[in-house]
From TrEMBL:
Primary subcellular site in the record, as a coarse category: membrane
Source organism of the structure: Thiorhodovibrio frisius
Protein name: Lauroyl/myristoyl acyltransferase
The keyword Translocase is annotated on this UniProt entry: no
Keywords annotated in UniProt: Acyltransferase, Cell inner membrane, Cell membrane, Membrane, Transferase
InterPro entries: LipA_acyltrans
Length: 335
């Protein structure tokens, strides 16, 4: 018979410890002045940009492919600026989640195109907020304009905190399920707002097609198209540009291309990506370029996010990827 184990179970689960530590850190960050929070985030982003790592590599790959007109030197400069903004994005989340909603909304210094948020009688409005600038603020701002349902992916960690933060101005959170989609449809039929993050690659095989994003085939959701066609709701973009360390934010609203409601899936998805790209060009350093937008690939397309980590090796990979995409007829000039 085997001897009984003498190992003692851990006093506290590592996952629980990590979550408690994260919550404590967020409470601390929420108490700090926003200019200091942004400087801390920028410093963290600078460190990420200094040493070879996957985030740094993926960012340069995406910028090199999507903005080929920049060349290696300018793409690297934009990559470094992006990582500093990336640091600010995550450092400011505690401020945006845990401060009173009226305090957060007071940080909106300027607005542009917000007349597009006016709803016609009996008609809802689909509002798309790409991962650009302070997207948590964009959702809070939208919910402050009227009844809003926000499409939401439940999280393994901090889910209750995220739900409370996003609900505190009255938004309804609709999970990414068939039931959640019904909630969105019903909200639009009642003439309400529906908020969606449109630029993540769907994982399911249904409800998405490949369409060009800055000329590169990207797996793209069809949910926006389906909702607009079913309910007749128009579509607009909304994003919150960060003005500077602690200086507040500018809200931008833009009309989406009409083809997002096309009865041809490829046209609709391409129009959606065109609208996202136009938003990104407003403040490209504030886009979530580290995200692996092209991890889903058409058959015959090369892998994007592997290989060596040094800048020169990454740029060689970008050049190689462009050649491979051109050879299989998948590469177009950036839109």
């Amino acid at each position: 018979m085997a001897a009984p184990s003498t190992e003692r179970p851990p006093l506290i689960d590592k996952t629980i410890l990590l979550e408690r530590t994260t919550r404590a850190l967020m409470r601390l960050l929420a108490r700090l002045p926003l200019p200091l929070v942004h400087r801390l985030g920028s410093a963290i982003g600078t460190l990420v940009a200094l040493f070879p790592n996957r985030q740094r590599r993926n960012t340069l790959i995406n910028i090199g492919l999507c903005l080929p007109e920049l060349g290696q030197d300018n793409a690297t400069v934009l990559r470094n600026r992006c990582l500093r903004e990336f640091g600010k994005t995550y450092a400011e989340i505690a401020h945006l989640w845990l401060r009173p909603s009226e305090d957060v909304l007071s940080l909106v210094r300027e607005t542009s195109g917000t007349e597009l948020l006016e709803r016609q009688p009996g008609s809802g409005l689909i509002v798309l907020s790409p991962h650009l600038g302070a997207w948590e603020l964009a959702g809070l701002y939208l919910a402050a304009q009227g009844p809003t349902a926000i499409f939401y992916k439940p999280q393994k960690y901090l889910d209750d905190l995220i739900l409370a933060a996003r609900k505190r101005s009255g938004a309804t959170l609709a999970p990414i399920t068939a039931r959640g989609i019904r909630v969105l449809v019903q909200a639009l039929e009642r003439g309400e707002y529906v908020g969606i993050l449109p630029d993540q690659a769907p994982r399911a095989d249904k409800g998405a097609v490949f369409a060009p994003f800055f000329g590169i085939p990207a797996y793209t959701m069809l949910l926006v198209n389906r909702l607009s066609r079913k309910t007749g709701a128009p579509v607009v973009f909304l994003f919150a540009e960060r003005l500077g360390p602690g200086l507040g934010y500018r809200i931008h609203c833009r009309k989406a291309p009409e083809a997002v409601a096309s009865d041809r899936d490829e046209f609709a998805a391409a129009a959606l990506n065109q609208g996202i790209a136009e938003c990104v060009r407003t403040c490209p350093e504030q886009y979530l370029w580290p995200y692996r937008r092209f991890r889903e690939r058409l058959e015959g397309m090369p892998k994007f996010y592997d290989g060596k980590l040094s800048d020169n090796a990454v740029w060689e990979q970008v050049t190689h990827l462009k050649a491979q995409l051109a050879a299989c007829g998948k590469f177009e000039s950036a839109s």
